[in-house]
Write the structure tokens for this entry.
Amino acid sequence: MCDDMFHHRDAFTGCVRAQAQGLTRCVVAMLGLLLFGTGWAQAAEPPPAPASIAAGSLVPPVVRLNLSEAMALFLKQNLDLLIAKYGIDSSKGQQITARLFPNPVGQIGNVASFTQGNTLAKTGALTVQVQQLFELAGKRGYRIESAGFGVQSAEADFEDAVRQLGFTIKDAYYRVLVAQRRLALAEENRDRFARILDVNTIRFKKGYIAEVDLIRIRLQVVDFQSQVIESIQEGESARADLRQLLRLSPASKLELTTEMDYRRVDPDMGKLRLVALDVRPDIKSRRALVAQREADLKLAKAFRVPDVTIGAGYSVQGSRGPDNQQMGILNLGVPLPLFNRNQGGIVQAEVGVQSAQAELDRTVNQVENQVDVAYHNLLQSRRLVEAYLAGVLEDARSTFTIVERAYERGGATILDLLDAARTSRTIQQNFIEALFSYQRNLFQLESSVGQEITS
């Protein structure tokens, strides 16, 4: 036991001398090597800059964005939205097709007799004819109606993609802000204990404190340093996610200008539910789909009425043909609906209407429950944030300061100081988490309603 104590005393003597020269980081690095191995020390060092950047030949672009600018860039460049937008163009192509009339059919025929010495020139009959299909019972109109609702459904699906991915971009944006707040808190605690370590190193040399107290302070500095590293890594990961959503280069340096401040909102639950049922794009899409399936049903029933084909033509005969060597032709073709009256198509269209209505009912139920859950989550997170702001957060900071001053005057022990520091850090971290949870629940409620909530 004593040998271990002397071993630690010898190990820290070199760092105390370094402290006398103002090199606090030496202590942290050495303790990091003792506690975590050389890998920790390497992780603590900032990553080397690329050669081109270090040489000054390439400067990474700086992208400064507030939340509104990030949303605008997201709507412009996100690949998932571009893919969803193609669905609208495809539906418009179907709408164009639905408006087109059937193409006419041209026919050319030649009949001749080759018996008894007849030839094509003497007995042949050349017939030219054009036929046109005329759709009855409003089939073309029903197709146009169905395609129009298809376009509305595709547009609503695109709006719904914007709604869902919009929440994703806001969440990613605020995760970066949370990482920045955590990093600032960790750096503040590390720097504060680094100053305490400087003072107590001198006090230890003069014999005012025990070595074990100095070791505890040093370990606490290492703990705060590890929190700094974790916060840096968390921030880099969050920025990478945000860059990917915004379709930015990994070399881009993001600077977010929106602050994560508390903004109280007190929405009306009854109004939120009505607004959601009216403006949610997924409900609009399901309603348009029901209308499209109803138009398809009307089209299927219209197929019970056969279409008419009208043809007109002209015939020229050879010299040995009938007396009328030149004739006009007019014919009318009507299918006889004796067996197939599109019975199966009508049944399928009826099932399509029922299925689309069930999808609409399910979506409405989901929306109502999403709004209800998001609303109550917002209330709970708001209550927690306001509890911190009511004095708990400031009390934790003040307690740490009071205990620190008392420790400097000898009125508190090192354990009291460490306990106050950990309590203050925990309360502040929990406040950051509560603030992020409140903001996230607000975004979730806005996404559930389908529009921004301002009050």
